[in-house]
Amino acid sequence: MYEVRVEGGFAAAHRLLHYNGKCEKLHGHNYKVRVWAKGSSLGEGGMLVDFSLLKAAMAKILSVLDHSDLNEIEVFKQDPSAERIARYIFDSIKTEEPGLPLSAVEVFETETSMARYSPD
């Protein structure tokens, strides 16, 4: 099995309305995002997927999130958790580029705290 990964990032603000603590207040993160693809066969040129295609698909979605208040995006409305952001990025890439062998998305709020979404 082959796996490839690309990384990107975005800066955004959010607040978690159903959280009892400091994250209820508006605050921001410099999110790091990792997008994973997985497959058992290689295409032309001996690649699972061209890195540039994966990066472009990720960048398109991250540009929507960058420098935003995530709570103002309908899908996140009240609680834009790292878990929900990871799912949103995954689903958005799959919708925009259904041919990509996407397997998972990781969203880091900090260097030590992240959430991962995969459909399995």
Describe what this molecule looks like in 3D.
This protein is α+β, with helices and mostly antiparallel strands and 120 residues long. It has one domain (2-117): Tetrahydropterin Synthase, Chain A (2-Layer Sandwich), CATH 3.30.479.10. It contains two helices and five strands; from the N terminus they run ββαβαββ. The chain has a five-stranded mixed β-sheet with strand order 3-1-2-4-5. Strand 4 and strand 5 form a beta hairpin. It is elongated, with a radius of gyration of 15 Å. The mean pLDDT is 96.
Short description, anyone?
The chain has 120 residues and is α+β, with helices and mostly antiparallel strands. The chain has a single domain (2-117), classed as Tetrahydropterin Synthase, Chain A.
Fourth-tier CATH superfamily name: 6-pyruvoyl tetrahydropterin synthase/QueD
Give the domain tally.
1
Q: Report the uncertain regions.
A: none
**E-strand count:** 5
What's the number of helices? Answer: 2
CATH class: Alpha Beta
What is the spatial order of strands in the main beta sheet?
Answer: 3-1-2-4-5
Compute the average pLDDT.
96
**Named CATH architecture:** 2-Layer Sandwich
Which key terms come to mind for this protein?
alpha+beta; elongated; Tetrahydropterin Synthase, Chain A; 2 helices
Topology overview:
Elements: E1 2-14, E2 27-39, H1 51-65, E3 68-69, H2 82-96, E4 102-108, E5 114-117
Helix pairs in contact: 1-2
